[in-house]
Amino acid sequence: MNQSALNTEIDDAVLAFYQQVNTDHVWLGFSGGLDSTVLLHALVKQCPATIHLSALHVHHGLQDCADDWVQHCQEVCASLNVELVVRYINVDNRDNIESAARNERYQVFSDCVADHEVLCLAHHQRDQAETFVLNLMRGAGVAGLSAMPQKRVLSSNHQAWLWRPLLDVAYNRLHEYALQNNLVWVEDVTNQDTRLRRNFIRHQLLPVLQQHWPASNHKIAQASDHLAEAAVLLADLAQQDLADIPHNKYKLDWQALQEFSFIRQKNILQYWFQLNHQLRIDAATLDWLESVCFQAPAGAEPKRKLSVGEIRRYQQFMFYVVENEQPFSFENLGFSELEESRFRLQLTRGEGVAQKWFQSPHSARVRCLQPTDKVNRDSLKKWFQTQHIPPWQRKLWPVLVVDDQLAAIANYRVMSGFEAEINENALKLVGLN
């Protein structure tokens, strides 16, 4: 294959990327290695005048030559007239260094790339094959075996995008492109350490497959694409099934779930956890849900800890409980700090607390229910039970206090003297259990 043909394959991928993105700022995760150097060169060559291109280098500090890599990246970016941003991180090496470094790196990406901006990574076809095999050996399902998507939302915190323009390009094409364009890159010596699983797959397993199936990387990537399509169909089915089950972000009616086969139950549960909490539930937890949580006798309250938070059961509902839920008190009512809270103040008319109580000279705040609050406890307990509100949520139940007097209990009642008159503007305190 001649040089122009090689350039065309990579340039076409980058051109297709530029034609699809809708942004004025593109970032490249730039390590200084071969892959990201090739992508940087191709991005610069075809960058539209309307797009600002920046490179982002993450200094992990795990090797003695890490400072030299920073200097190399600075020299390469200066030669291409590309802005370079360098971020320094500390990696916790007590556990899996690869995983810890990746988590820290993606946190930097999320912090640096703003809404409506795009981050490019230089993953290619061989990377996709390696990821597929790694996930296969972990016993991953359809979603995991889909491996890496070409594009996705960068994080759940904002609407920045992650793209992999070269995901369908073979590694050999990148290497040939680099040589023919006289590119200079750094080599990470740890990439040869076959004690690391990805390196073992790269240097020992995939070459054996290629002896019998020369296009094995392409075929694995193709299988990943098929599985990604299957994952979309499963998500569509879960969305339809979930519509028939009472649920919100934090709870799901497990009794209604029993109307489905367990295979569909698992699909619904995986979808619900991923949609609401970006959690992948493992097979052991799904088995626990079937054999323990859903089989426990009435009145039992089984629970299981997850990596973050835990699953609990109360009455007919399964709850996802976040571990860091703490007592709260908000005085700046209606401001952005309420956006992620477990309650809302809704504007109403003739229902709720009269709006005059939220105006000067009165002082209003929302806090947790306290043992000293004057309310009929027996009546409130019965209401909690009929509303399926579990015991651990009751002590964090939101109440409205005006001038240090209890004015309303979310979803339950407005206290005497604070009610709005008919057609009077009011605010209604609504709890989100």
What does this structure look like?
This protein is of the alpha+beta class and 433 residues long. The chain has three domains: 3-224, Rossmann fold, CATH 3.40.50.620; 244-321, 2-Layer Sandwich (Uridine Diphospho-n-acetylenolpyruvylglucosamine Reductase, domain 3); 329-431, no CATH class. 41% of the residues lie in helices and 19% in strands. The strands form four sheets. The chain has a six-stranded mixed sheet with strand order 3-2-1-4-6-5, with helices on both faces. A five-stranded antiparallel sheet has the order 11-14-15-16-17, with no helix packed on it. It has a four-stranded antiparallel sheet with strand order 7-10-9-8. Strand 9 and strand 10 form a beta hairpin. The model has no long low-confidence stretch (mean pLDDT 89).
Our count of domains comes out at 3
Mean pLDDT: 89
| Helix vs. strand class | alpha+beta
Q: Report strand %.
A: 15-25%
Q: Report the count of strand segments.
A: 18
Alpha carbon gap, first and last residue: 62 Å
**Which geometry do the CA atoms define?**
globular
Helix content: 40-55%
Largest sheet: 6 strands, mixed
CATH homologous superfamily name of the largest domain? HUPs
Figure out the total of helices. 14
**What is the top-level CATH class of the largest domain?**
Alpha Beta
What strand order characterises the main sheet? 3-2-1-4-6-5
And the CATH topology of the largest domain? Rossmann fold
Determine Rg (CA atoms, Å): 27 Å
Q: Tell me what the CATH architecture of the largest domain is.
A: 3-Layer(aba) Sandwich
- The oligomeric state is single chain
